[in-house]
Write a structure and sequence with these properties.
Structural class: alpha/beta
CATH superfamily: Glutaredoxin
Strand order of the largest sheet: 1-8-7-4-5-6
Largest sheet: 6 strands, mixed
Number of domains: 1
Number of helices: 5
Oligomer: single chain
CATH topology: Glutaredoxin
Low-confidence stretches: 1-6, 17-29
CATH class: Alpha Beta
Radius of gyration: 16 Å
Shape: globular
Length: 191
């Protein structure tokens, strides 16, 4: 197990790491029967972000407006984050044709960290990098992994602290229920 480094402390990540380690047992286990999403009262607007992915391409939350988004915060140094990543990939594969976005913001990792992770666990969804954790600090989270479900209007609808099996049909149905209804013959454009 890797020790908390001065780099984590400098980036403001040590509190997130400690909170994740002290979180309820759900954080470390995907196979829990009580998998659920927690409704967020009053559905506040999700803080926007403008980040780069490991290849330097821009990634903005605003680009996903008009469709539901599963927004995961994770890090390569976080065991529960790594554990849930394959299920997020399976969820992405299931939902991509349904116009539901999956985005996983890497907190505190640099492109080399992510590249090393992707060697073992390739994923196809967007991986913006929050290298200084400023975006993560704007969201109501206490540790990693934390995931938010955002509605097509850009509001935080659900949260999930700790890992989940994101390919669970019950979780996916909650996300699908947020899809907007479109008029016959109209097709919204998406990134």
């Amino acid at each position: 197990m890797r020790r908390a480094s001065p780099r984590l402390a400098r980036r403001g990540l040590l509190p997130l790491l400690l909170a994740g380690l002290l979180a309820p047992p759900l954080t470390g286990s995907l196979a829990t029967p009580e998998q659920s999403l927690t409704p967020i009262p009053e559905r506040p607007v999700a803080p926007d972000f403008d980040l780069k992915d490991p290849e330097g391409r821009p990634q903005r939350l605003a680009d996903y407006r008009g469709r539901p988004v599963i927004l995961n915060f994770w890090a390569t140094w976080c065991p529960p984050c790594r554990e849930e990543m394959p299920s997020i990939q399976r969820a992405y594969e299931t939902l991509a044709a349904e116009d539901i976005a999956v985005v996983a913001i890497s907190v505190g990792d640099d492109p080399q960290d992510i590249a090393a992770f992707l060697e073992d666990e390739p994923v196809d969804f967007a991986l913006p990098m929050d290298t200084d954790s400023k975006v993560a600090q704007r969201y109501p989270m206490k540790g990693l992994p934390t995931t938010f479900v955002i509605d097509p209007e850009g509001r935080l609808v659900y949260s999930a602290m700790g890992s989940r099996a994101w390919d669970d049909p019950k979780l996916l149905d909650q996300v699908r229920a947020l899809k907007p209804t479109t008029a016959p013959g109209s097709t919204p454009g998406r990134p």
